[in-house]
Design goal:
The structure is a homodimer of 342-residue chains. The first copy, chain A, is of the alpha/beta class and 342 residues long. Chain A folds into 2 domains: 1-124 and 292-322, 3-Layer(aba) Sandwich (Isopropylmalate Dehydrogenase); 125-283, Isopropylmalate Dehydrogenase (3-Layer(aba) Sandwich). Chain A has helices at residues 16-29, 41-54, 74-80, 85-94, 107-118, 153-171, 192-202, 216-219, 231-255, 260-268, 270-279, 306-321, 324-339, and strands at residues 3-8, 33-39, 59-63, 100-103, 128-135, 138-143, 177-181, 207-212, 226-228, 288-291, 296-299. Chain A has an 11-stranded mixed sheet, sandwiched between helices. In chain A, β1 (3-8), α1 (16-29) and β2 form a beta-alpha-beta unit. In chain A, α1 (16-29) packs across α12 (306-321) and α3 packs across α5 (107-118). At the A-B interface, α8, α9, α10 and α11 of A face α8, α9, α10 and α11 of B.
């Protein structure tokens, strides 16, 4: 199946220096893939003179005269940057020219623009950001990782329905295990928001397994496929895990370089240390999907390098192939009409 | 200065098997320390026959006939277990017999009992749990780590005042850098709770440095001394970090045991790996203080081993010596009377 992905070529901390090589590598690896690089043609054309011919029809440039800054306010970007690389890349999804869009740009602006251009799936109140995290059991999907700062129980319930469809499609699991993030596993624990959401989920057709604590994101004692939380808590958890990994990596490096003997040991342990680094490489988990919209937008980490951005493009390829957006739309409609919560 | 600590000897997953050896080690290391082990004398006396004489007057047993279960509901423990080891240990603090109490028991029951027995510092609306976390810059204090599931901006402000006094006393810093945990560093980011708390802190005499994200708990780009958040978010962050560390440790172990060469490398790298393990050893960060009460109660992790429980007792020793509770009480009174928020 041929699929087309539009890339916000100017987005992220490194712009075309990362987005272009990552795109070229994906084109090389998947001959059924087409990529539209969206951005300043004055920058992109000279970079791509020879390769466009090489990929005969699979690679093209769509000019966009503006670029959204990494710290620009979402509302201002939406109002003032109608020809931004981000906006034009999303327009291509709306117009059916691209099947998905990938951007490493400003998260708030990307979400606001995607919501404005693509519109929400009818019945869904809020979009949510979902991603996967490595875990002892393989990996875990979690949402919302930062789209919403204040959620109701009903919002959490809708996130669970959307996330459940994504996990079903992407992982080929008939009934993913869905859990709510809380500060204890007992039913009496938590705030009103999670307690009410738990009741909604218990009465739904989802395979709801109860509350889990923060350690379940990476290392729960049992495998859970999807963890649901509000965007404030989810984002803090995600960043806390990033910080812990950074601190631990820093300590490991310091321990292996504190004297000559340790440095020698590091040389001998190099294959094991390399294998370890690969196992927990966050670049292999880059890419978060915006759920709740009538089109697929994947957000890459702003500081992504080529490997990380490639991971985000590959995530887009998978979700297009698995038809995730259509499945979510249909299921949400069904859930709201026939009542999942029977 | 002589100081006395009451130990809930029956609390935690391992009870006297951990609390007794940890207490004995602390007595050996600090000759100015007295310990009262609270619990079932039928269990404790046979264990301590010889050592009590050895520590002539520095070690004693206070009988308590009951024990609070790790999953018992706080309200039930409070109502039905008036002679629990936890309750009697806290009573000793209330009666001025002990300067602090250390327990590895059920957090909810310990908090409820401590609040009921010791009462709150006048003017403080909610107690909070504070602890330190290892970071690239040394360590960071953070609160609330789980006492409150729903906080207002005013609660966060009070947590900051209490935490600030603790950090000043324990770290000997005149003006600790205080930050609020948020999902972005820009002033526009976050929910109403943190935005309002930020305004209260900006107008206070505290050295408020702004918002930080979750990664600042372990690895922020700048050193912050105290991070303030509500108990739901703080607890999820804490547990997420625990899970990340567990997953990373698991991956490291797997990488160093996947074949004979890797196992050999692990032997050679043993000193470096041991130094690494020590650097991030969570047992060296065990112990959280309940702030807002008119007495000092330290909560140890339920699964603490002897080293970890020793760390919690040492934390109690430090906070008694630094007179943390009196300083918080005085400062809160001053803050409420003269208006810190001038």
């Amino acid at each position: 199946m041929a699929l087309t992905i539009s890339i916000d070529a100017m987005g992220g901390d490194f712009g075309p220096l990362v987005t272009v090589p990552a795109s070229l590598e994906c084109l090389k690896e998947n001959t059924g893939l087409k990529i539209i690089l969206v951005g300043d043609q004055g920058v992109l054309k000279p970079l791509l003179l020879d390769v466009i011919a090489h990929y005969s029809g699979r690679l093209s440039i769509q000019h966009a005269s503006e670029c959204v800054g990494m710290h620009e306010l979402p509302a201002q970007a939406l109002k003032n940057k109608k020809d931004s690389s981000m906006r034009v890349a999303i327009n291509l999804v709306r117009d059916g020219v691209a099947d998905a869009c990938v951007s490493a740009g400003n998260t708030g602006a990307l979400m606001a623009t995607a919501k404005f251009v693509l519109k929400m799936i009818p019945g869904i109140a809020r979009p949510a950001i979902i991603s996967t995290m490595p875990s002892i059991h393989g990996h875990t999907h979690a949402l919302d990782l930062g789209a919403n700062v204040d959620c109701t129980a009903e919002h959490l319930f809708q996130f669970a329905i959307m996330g459940n469809e994504l996990v079903k499609a992407v992982e080929n699991i008939a009934r993913p295990k869905v859990a709510l993030l809380n500060i204890g596993e007992e039913a009496v624990k938590g705030n009103d928001q999670v307690k009410t959401a738990a009741k909604l989920l218990e009465n739904s057709s989802l395979n709801y397994v109860g509350f889990v604590e923060g350690d379940s994101l990476n290392a729960g004692h049992a495998k859970v496929d999807l963890i649901v939380t509000d965007g404030f808590v989810g984002n803090v958890a995600l960043k806390s895990i990033e910080g812990a990994a950074k601190m631990i990596g820093h300590s490991l490096k310091a321990s292996f370089s504190k004297n000559l003997l340790a440095k020698l040991a590091a040389l001998i342990a190099y294959p094991a240390l390399k294998s370890f680094k690969h196992r927990i490489d966050p670049r292999l988990y880059n890419g978060a999907s915006f759920l709740g919209l009538r089109g697929l937008v994947i957000k890459s980490h702003g500081g992504a390098d080529t490997l990380a951005f490639k991971t985000a493009i590959k995530l887009a390829e998978i979700e297009v192939r698995k038809d995730v957006i259509r499945k979510i739309s249909e299921h949400v409609e069904q859930a709201l009409v026939t009542g999942v919560r029977s």
